[in-house]
Amino acid sequence: MTEVDPQWYRDLLESAPDAAILIDSEGLILLVNAQTEHLFGYERAELLGQSIEMLVPERYRGRHSVLRDGYFAEPKLRGMGAGTELAGRRKDGSEFPVEISLSPLRTERGLFATAAIRDASERRKANEKFRALLESAPDAMVIIDQRGDIRLVNAQAERLFGYQRAALVGKPIEVLMPERYRAKHGDHRRGYFSAPKLREMGSGLELWGRRKDGSEFPIEISLSPLETEDGLWGTAAVRDMTERKKAEQRFRALLETAPDAMVIIDQTGQIRLVNAQTERIFGCRREDLIGQPVEVLIPERLRKQHIGHRSGYFQAPKVREMGAGLELSGRRSDGSEFPIEISLSPLETEQGTWVTAAIRDITQAKRERDAAVRLAAIVESSNDSILGKDTQGRITAWNKAAEASYGYSAEEIIGRDVRILFPPEKQHEEEQLLARVRQGEQVQHFETQRLAKDGRRIDMSLTISPIRDAQGHVVGASTIGRDIGERKRAEQRFRSLLETAPDAMVIIDREGQIALVNAQAERLFGYPREQLIGQPVEMLMPSPLRERHAGHRQGYFSDPRVRPMGVGLELMGLRSDGSEFAIEISLSPMESGGGEYATAAVRDISERKAVENRLAQYAEELSRSNQELRQFAYVASHDLRAPLRGVVGFAQLLKKRYGGQLDGEADEYLDYLVDSSMHMQSLIDGLLAFSKVGQDSGFTRVDCERLLKQVETQLRAAIEERGALVTHDPLPVVRGSELELNQLLQNLIGNGLKFQPGSQPKVHLSAQHTAEGWCFSVRDQGIGIAPEHRERIFEIFQRLHSSEDYEGTGIGLALCQKIVRHHGGRIWVESTPGQGSTFYFTVKD
């Protein structure tokens, strides 16, 4: 026997809580501890040097040697509970379940193995008890690990889901769920294991299971964490809710079909269930009611005492029928209150005793109870005469207004034939009216005349309705009469006013039927009024307008309002002879006899249209003439430039060649000829520039600071000759014609320099944004302009000074004004004589 040392290893083995055995590669026991003697019943001396198989049941020994050889061929640590079912054999031959951990031990003497052996009997018994408990559970039990793999199921789970347990163990729990829930379930499972706790059945979740055959069914699940040697697992108790769901659906269906509002509350007074009638009566959505105290349906002033009534009811619950004599009120979501009746009955549930309250809105019933009293008061206080009669025409009821209208007291008239109120020529009406009433027909707004006690005739509008008994038989009639004498007189005044109107007046109803016209309408359209009344108004319109007019008419009646003449619509009328003519229409709504009408005032504007057409022609001819004048000015000034250049050239040549050779008068004539030719050339150049303004319609963005630099370059000779100073504030970028704006600045700056006597003239430019756009200013310190000349200077060829004083053509400022107007702006000057001038002009954004 090979001995193993050192002593520390022996001490370690002895201190181990499990039986510890050291063996060599041949399976011989080299070392055991006291726990081994206790566990197997051998003395230590009986074990040392013996084969390890003596501690293994005989049926496993042959296989064990093979396993041992395999372990020494590839030695590694193997922990306890590796899933292998193992057994040990005691000295007395009894067997018991064990768990073994193995670890290799390398020494100078070779390779050994240490086996730590634990008696698994108690755990096996506990497991068997757990499995027995699992199998006896009334619900399907499914145990999963943190990965979601099924580790254990019971027989109920097999029956519920239709799987053999072997087909479930090791499978992901998601196989028992409908596919639509599987993707999200992993997150739910991880969330549960991150904070495991007990979750009872009926936690309010809508859950579904999936059987092997693919069918789905409603379930409830309770969850509880389970600590195992393999870590934390989860135990799910699954209950099939199919039958309960069906029962609940039947109960809910019964609840929904109830004619009254049904409210179910628990012992705490919380609402657990309501039906659609409850939503309708109280004006609340059921999701806003569930979980709320029932007192939300009770007026605030009654809530405190109701809590006491509720507690008393639960102490002795019993059926309480409707109409128990209590004056009860409900409260809607908008705060309004209404009278109710309530019946109560206890309801036994899994959660204890609840109460079902059937609530009936008795607003209508209460209203009907009060209606007779109110109706009598209304009839008596009505301004309309109201009388009742039987089917033979005898008067049975008479109110104060009838007494005032007809002059008869109730005592005088009740029991008499109603024909006493009919003029002789109207006697036939009663039988006709009674015949219609006996058929159950209501006669509305029947206009006729009736007689008062003093013989006066009264214009009346009558509404006659049948009176029925409890079985629905017609037993009489009620007549509501309104004196329409004043209305008749008002209508007559209206018709008279209509006839005096200067325009044709046409009144139509909502359907577009002509109800009334005046004499002007007859003259304008050429129809007698009897051919117009009752006809569609579209007959007065040309064919192209008729189809669209019905839509316009309906739109007007949906939002009736006054629409004055001349709203920009091009309208045409059609006369009886088929001729068409231009018209204008004003519309106004009108209420009459309970109906809606529209009054159209129609005006013939043929003459005005003819004048407008002539003016349009004149404008077109004037525009064409202006265009021709502009073209003529352009062509004339362009064509005159060539011969004029010849005249100027020859005049200058004569002065150069013969100047001083002739007499003094001839030299003066030559100077005059050259100056006049040059002035004529300046005039033609100015006219050409003036005629071109407005031809450039392609506006671009113009940087005015860059433009000013160009102008300063073009005026450099004049600026340097005079020692002038041109300054400016920051200038904007505007939209316009760069060429025309260049001419504008050249002229204004040039004028500012020209009309400043002396040396070093100064001109300053600035710009500011206003409501009109950009407002530019060009300020000089020159001679100024008198107030009476400030408008005149912008007229073409208008000069304030002689050419001997200041040269010029009188076109420059007129050209500036035309350029500014082309840019949508205006130009003006502010000046004080002797102190300078400031020219302003605007340019739109």
Report on this model:
By secondary structure, the chain is an alpha+beta fold. It has 25 helices and 32 strands. The strands form 7 sheets. The chain has a 5-stranded antiparallel beta sheet with strand order 2-1-5-4-3. Strands 7-6-10-9-8 form a 5-stranded antiparallel beta sheet. The chain has a 5-stranded antiparallel beta sheet with strand order 12-11-15-14-13. β3 and β4 form a beta hairpin. α20 runs antiparallel to α21, α22 packs across α24 and α24 packs antiparallel against α25. The radius of gyration is 58 Å and the shape is flat. The mean pLDDT is 83.
Q: Low-confidence runs (pLDDT<50, min 5 residues)?
A: none
Number of strands: 32
* Mean model confidence by pLDDT: 83
* Distinct helical segment count: 25
**Strand arrangement across the biggest beta sheet:** 2-1-5-4-3
Strand content: 25-35%
> Roughly how much helix do the residues carry, as a percent range?
25-40%
Distance between the termini: 114 Å
Class from helix and strand fractions:
alpha+beta
Overall body shape: flat
In short:
The strands form seven sheets. This protein has a five-stranded antiparallel beta sheet with strand order 2-1-5-4-3. Strands 7-6-10-9-8 form a five-stranded antiparallel beta sheet. A five-stranded antiparallel beta sheet has the order 12-11-15-14-13.
Secondary structure: elements and pairs:
Blueprint: H1 7-15, E1 19-23, E2 29-32, H2 34-40, H3 44-47, H4 58-73, E3 86-89, E4 95-107, E5 110-119, H5 121-136, E6 140-144, E7 150-153, H6 155-161, H7 165-168, H8 179-194, E8 207-210, E9 216-228, E10 231-240, H9 242-257, E11 261-265, E12 271-274, H10 276-282, H11 286-289, H12 300-315, E13 328-331, E14 337-349, E15 352-361, H13 363-381, E16 385-390, E17 395-398, H14 400-406, H15 410-413, H16 428-438, E18 443-451, E19 457-468, E20 474-483, H17 485-500, E21 504-509, E22 514-517, H18 519-525, H19 543-558, E23 571-574, E24 580-592, E25 595-604, H20 606-658, H21 664-692, E26 700-703, H22 704-714, H23 716-722, E27 725-728, E28 733-736, H24 738-754, E29 762-770, E30 773-780, H25 812-822, E31 827-832, E32 836-843
Parallel strand pairs: 27-29
Antiparallel strand pairs: 1-2, 1-5, 3-4, 4-5, 6-7, 6-10, 8-9, 9-10, 11-12, 11-15, 13-14, 14-15, 16-17, 16-20, 18-19, 19-20, 21-22, 21-25, 23-24, 24-25, 26-28, 29-30, 30-32, 31-32
Helix pairs in contact: 20-21, 22-24, 24-25
